[in-house]
Specification:
heterodimer; A: 157 residues; alpha+beta; Sufe protein. Chain: A; 4 strands; globular; B: 417 residues; alpha/beta; Aspartate Aminotransferase, domain 1; Aspartate Aminotransferase, domain 2; 2 domains; 7-stranded mixed β-sheet; 14 helices; 40% helix
C-alpha cells in the first residue's frame, strides 16, 4: 500500500485544478450524487447532441480522489454516446476494484486511478461521479453511495 | 470479577506505559507501522481485564437469566445483576431499579423517546436540544415529533462550539416538556454546563436527559449530585464491550412510563386478554439481555476506577494541551471547536486537503483518526464544512503519539505539495 500510487501527480493536478468545473444551464441531463459516509456531494450536468455527450460539467465538494475522478471523467466522456459511456464505466469500475485488472492503455489518463484498488475504503470516492453521470443519463435525480440507489446504478456495471 | 488491581495512577505521575500493557491490541502494527489509536471517541479499546471477564463468563457461567432454578442460570443471574449493582455504584444511583441495560446510548435515548416522549407529548409541547447533538440525540426526537405533533427546538452554539446559554434560557419556555443534551460533544469535545442546564430546567419542572456517551470515560458522573432525570451511556466508549449500554432513569419517572418493547422478562403475568408488566428495571428489558456485555461493562468500570477517572482525565488533559500546541503550529490547520472546557477531542480541517484524504494518509502512517461528519451533520453545517478529521485521546495514549500525529499531518502536506 503506497500513498504515491493513490495520490499520483495526475490526481493531485486534477484535484487542484478540476477541469470542466461548474454547471451547464440549461442542461439536457442532470443528477446529484452524494456519499453520506464522507459528505461528498457533486452535481453532473450534461448537454447532449442526439445520444452523444456534447458538453459536461461537474461541481461539488469532495476529497481529492472524488474531485480528480470527476474531472478526469468529464474529459474522458465528452464526445461519447451513452453506450460508450456505460462501457467505459465498466472498465473504470474494474480498474478500481479488481486486483488483477491491468491498467488498460485505452483508458488514457483514467488509468491514474488504478492506485485506488489498494484502498478499498476509497473506491466509492472514485466511482461516485460515474454513478451520478449514469443517473443523469438514465433519468436524473439524486443517487447515493449508500442504499438502494447505489445498487441499482451499480447494476449498470 | 475483580479487575487487575492497577495502581498506575499515583500522586506523582501516571504510568501510561503500564496502562498500555493492559490493552493487547495496542501492540499490533498497521500497514507495518506501530498502531497509533486516536479514535477512542468512536470506540475505545478493551483492557485484558474486560476481555478476560467476558471470556470467563462465556467459559464458566453462561445460561439464561431470571429463569432457571439450575446452578448456571442462578450464577448467570448473579453475574448480570451484580453488574447492574456495579453500574449503580458507578453512577451513584439510589437503586438498581433505576439502572436499565440497553444496547447502548442510542437505544437508551430511543427508550426515553418512545416511552416517555410518545406517552406525554403532543401538539404545542416542545423538546429542547442543542445544536451540538449527535444524531442519536436528534433523530429519536424527530420520530417522537412526527408521531405526536410536538416540536423540536434547538438551542444554538457559538463559533467556538459552546452552547449559548442566554439562548438556551430564552428557548426554555412553559411549552418545554423535556430537555435532552449531550454532556460532552462527540464532534468537538465541548463540555456542556449540564449542572446549569439541569438547574434551569428543573426550575421550570422540566425533566432532563443527558447523553453521557462521551463524558463517562473522562469525568466522574454522579446522577444524584447532577440531578439528571435520565442519563445514557455506552459500554464500548468506556473500555467495555459493544452492544451494552445503560439508561439511568429516576425511579418515579420510570415507574410512570409505559414499556416500549414487549416480550419475555418484562412481564409478570400474560394471558391473551391482559398482561401485567414486571417491576423496574425489568419492565424495560424485554427479551434475553446481553449478559456477557453487562459483565464486561462491570469489569471496564472496575478497571476505570482502579486507574482513577481523575488521573485519566488529568493525563488526557496533558495530551490535549500538547496536541493543541503541536497541531496549532501546523500552517493551514484550523481547529474546529475551541470551547473553554473541552474533553480530549481535537477536530480539525487542513487547507487544501479534504479530511477523507487526511484519514487515508494518516492511516498509511499507522495513525487511526476518525474522518467525516461524526454523526453530527448539523454541527458540520454550522461551521460550513462537510467533514473534519478528529483525533481523540484516551487513558492509553502518549505524548509521543501526539507528536506522531503531528508528523503524519506534515507528511500529508508533503503529499499534497
Amino acid at each position: 500500500m503506497e500513498l504515491k500510487d493513490l495520490y499520483r501527480d495526475v490526481i493531485l493536478d486534477h484535484n487542484r485544478q478540476p477541469r470542466n468545473f461548474g454547471r451547464l444551464d440549461p442542461a439536457d441531463a442532470l443528477a446529484d450524487g452524494h456519499n453520506p459516509l464522507c459528505g461528498d456531494r457533486l452535481t453532473v450536468s450534461v448537454r447532449l447532441a442526439g445520444d452523444t455527450i456534447a458538453d459536461i460539467r461537474f461541481e461539488g465538494k469532495g476529497c481529492a480522489i472524488s474531485t480528480a475522478s470527476a474531472s478526469l471523467m468529464t474529459e474522458a466522456v465528452k464526445g461519447r454516446n451513452r453506450e460508450a459511456v456505460h462501457e467505459l464505466f465498466g472498465r473504470v469500475h474494474a480498474l478500481l476494484t479488481r486486483q488483477e485488472a491491468p491498467a488498460d492503455e485505452s483508458l488514457g489518463k483514467l488509468a491514474a486511478l488504478s492506485g485506488v484498488r489498494e484502498f478499498p475504503s476509497r473506491v466509492k470516492c472514485a466511482s461516485l461521479c460515474w454513478h451520478t453521470l449514469n443517473a443523469a443519463l438514465d433519468q436524473g435525480g439524486t443517487i447515493s453511495t449508500e442504499g438502494g440507489n447505489e445498487s441499482s446504478s451499480a447494476g449498470a456495471t | 470479577m475483580s479487575a487487575t488491581p492497577l495502581r498506575a495512577a499515583t500522586g506523582s505521575g501516571y504510568d501510561v506505559e503500564r496502562v498500555r500493557r493492559d490493552f493487547p491490541i495496542l501492540s499490533r502494527t498497521v500497514h507495518g507501522k506501530p498502531l497509533v489509536y486516536l479514535d477512542s471517541a468512536a470506540s475505545s479499546q478493551r483492557p485484558l481485564a474486560v476481555i478476560r471477564a467476558v471470556d470467563d463468563y462465556e467459559s464458566h457461567t453462561h445460561a439464561n437469566v431470571h429463569r432457571g432454578v439450575h446452578a448456571l442460570s442462578q450464577e448467570a443471574t448473579a453475574a448480570y445483576e451484580g453488574s447492574r449493582e456495579r453500574v449503580r455504584r458507578f453512577l451513584n444511583a439510589r437503586s438498581t431499579r433505576e439502572i436499565i441495560f440497553t444496547r447502548g446510548t442510542t437505544e437508551s435515548i430511543n427508550l426515553v423517546a418512545q416511552s416517555f416522549g410518545r406517552a406525554r407529548l403532543g401538539p404545542g409541547d416542545e423538546i429542547l436540544i442543542t445544536a451540538l447533538e449527535h444524531h442519536a440525540n436528534i433523530v429519536p426526537w424527530q420520530l417522537v415529533r412526527d408521531a405526536t405533533g410536538c416540536s423540536l427546538v434547538v438551542a444554538p452554539i457559538d463559533r467556538s462550539g459552546e452552547l449559548i446559554m442566554e439562548e438556551f434560557h430564552r428557548l426554555l419556555t412553559p411549552r418545554t416538556r423535556l430537555v435532552a443534551v449531550a454532556h460532552v460533544s462527540n464532534a468537538l469535545g465541548t463540555i456542556l454546563p449540564v449542572a446549569q442546564i439541569i438547574a434551569a430546567a428543573h426550575a421550570r419542572r422540566v425533566p432532563v436527559l443527558i447523553d453521557g456517551a462521551q463524558a463517562v470515560p473522562h469525568t466522574r458522573v454522579d446522577v444524584q449530585g447532577l440531578g439528571a432525570d435520565f442519563y445514557a451511556f455506552s459500554g464500548h466508549k468506556v473500555y467495555g464491550p459493544t452492544g451494552i449500554g445503560v439508561l439511568y432513569g429516576r425511579e418515579e419517572l420510570l415507574a410512570s412510563m409505559p414499556p416500549w418493547q414487549g416480550g419475555g422478562d418484562m412481564i409478570l403475568n400474560v394471558t391473551f386478554e391482559r398482561t401485567t408488566y414486571n417491576e423496574l428495571p425489568y419492565k424495560f428489558e424485554a427479551g434475553t439481555p446481553n449478559m456477557s456485555g453487562a459483565v464486561g461493562l462491570a469489569a471496564a468500570i472496575d478497571y476505570l476506577e482502579a486507574l482513577g477517572i481523575e488521573a485519566i482525565a488529568a493525563h488526557e488533559h496533558t495530551l490535549l494541551e500538547a496536541a493543541s500546541a503541536a497541531l496549532g503550529s501546523i500552517p493551514g490547520l484550523t481547529l474546529i471547536g475551541t470551547a473553554r472546557h473541552k474533553a480530549s477531542v481535537m477536530s480539525f480541517v487542513m487547507q487544501g486537503i479534504h479530511p477523507h484524504d487526511l484519514g487515508t494518509i494518516l492511516d498509511a502512517e499507522g495513525v487511526a483518526v476518525r474522518t467525516g461528519h461524526h454523526c453530527a451533520q448539523p454541527v458540520m453545517d454550522f461551521f460550513g464544512i462537510p467533514a473534519t478529521a478528529r483525533a481523540s485521546f484516551a487513558c492509553y495514549n502518549t505524548l509521543a503519539e501526539v507528536q506522531q500525529l503531528a508528523a503524519a499531518l506534515r507528511r500529508a502536506q508533503e503529499v499534497f505539495g
